[in-house]
């Protein structure tokens, strides 16, 4: 190899070394928060806004992408939790509605039975069959009307 070829290879190696060194240098990224709360990233610092300077290692994913990924994961988990809570609340509401409808039907049935005018019998705690007196029927009728008002809204 002649002196001229040697010089050309030397220059090429020098250029290659300089470009490799430049690409291996740390990348500076600037991070700041806008007035509306939006987080911004740039290779140039903002004017008149406090910012954070971030040095990224060569070959590492950009800090902004990592932080956005983490923020997205966190937001997805928050939305999932909120959805589970809403679903549970909706199920609870439906359960309460079904219970109230059952109570309403029972109160209406009791009221209709008490209004029939026929002699009504019941079994007491001791297992004895007894008949409702007019006074007891009126008490139970009043109670049944209150329950219809309460549960059948």
Question: What are the salient characteristics of this protein?
Answer:
153 residues; alpha+beta; two-stranded antiparallel ribbon; 3 helices
Strand and helix order: HEEEHEEH
Major sheet: order of its strands?
2-1-3
Helix content: 55-70%
Q: What portion of residues belong to β-strands?
A: 5-15%
Q: How many strand elements? A: 5
* Low-pLDDT regions: none
Question: Helix/strand/pairing class, anyone?
Answer: alpha+beta
In DSSP terms, counting alpha (H) and pi (I) runs of 4 or more, how many helices?
A: 3
* Beginning-to-end CA distance, first to last residue: 103 Å
Cα-atom Rg, whole angstroms?
40 Å
- Bulk shape: rod-shaped
What would you note in describing this structure?
With 153 residues, the chain is of the alpha+beta class. 61% of the residues lie in helices and 14% in strands. The protein is built from three helices and five strands. The chain has helices at 3-24, 63-115, 134-151, and strands at 27-33, 39-42, 52-56, 121-123, 129-131. The strands form two sheets. It has a three-stranded antiparallel sheet with strand order 2-1-3, with no helix packed on it. A hairpin with a 5-residue loop joins β1 (27-33) and β2. α2 runs antiparallel to α3. The longest helix is centred in the middle third of the chain and has 53 residues, at 63-115. The model has no long low-confidence stretch (mean pLDDT 82).
Brief overview, please?
The protein has helices spanning about 5-25, 65-115, 135-150, and strands at about 25-35, 40, 50-55, 120-125, 130. The protein is α+β, with helices and mostly antiparallel strands and about 150 residues long.
